Amino acid sequence: YEHLRMRLDREGSFTPLRASLLAASTAGATAALLTLPFDVVKTRQQVMLGEAVAQGRTVLPVERTLTIMREIVAKRGVRGLFVGTIPRVAKVAPACAIMMTTYEHGKDYFRRLHARAT
Q1: Tens of pLDDT along the chain (118 residues)?
Q2: Coil, strand, or helix at residue 82?
Q3: How far is CA 73 from CA 67, 78, 91, 116, in A?
Q4: What DSSP assignment string belongs to 38-97?
Q5: Extended strands (E) in the chain
């Protein structure tokens, strides 16, 4: 995020606000893509747990992350680990853009406020 934001700021083709929004949404989208397989596994574990509870089982299923990943790849290929990519990126990228831009501008505001007070 920081590297991309500073690079966009230096180029001068983006305002600081736009540079921050673009860098943060890019970072968020990247993070969403990299962590999506683990999110798919987590969802699978939650479904398995819910089914066990609904069926009244007292012994709850506990499967390792790698085991579930291998099962998904065996049944659906690597693409199975990336099910729901578009909705996840559509959710995470704007959320990161808003969060990081708000943080950056809040930090700048309070830095300027503090500089005036001293």
Answers
A1: 988 998 888 888 888 889 999 999 999 999 999 999 999 999 999 999 899 889 988 777 778 999 999 999 999 999 999 999 999 999 999 999 999 999 999 999 999 999 988 7
A2: helix
A3: 10, 5, 25, 58
A4: HHHHHHHHHHHHHHHHHTT-SS-----HHHHHHHHHHHH-GGGGGTTHHHHHHHHHHHHH
A5: none
Task: Write out the two tokens for 73.
Answer: 């790849």
Residues 6+ apart with CB under 8 A from 75: none
pTM: 0.79
What is the distance between the alpha carbons of residues 32 and 50, in angstroms, rounded to a whole number?
25
d(CA 111, CA 105): 10
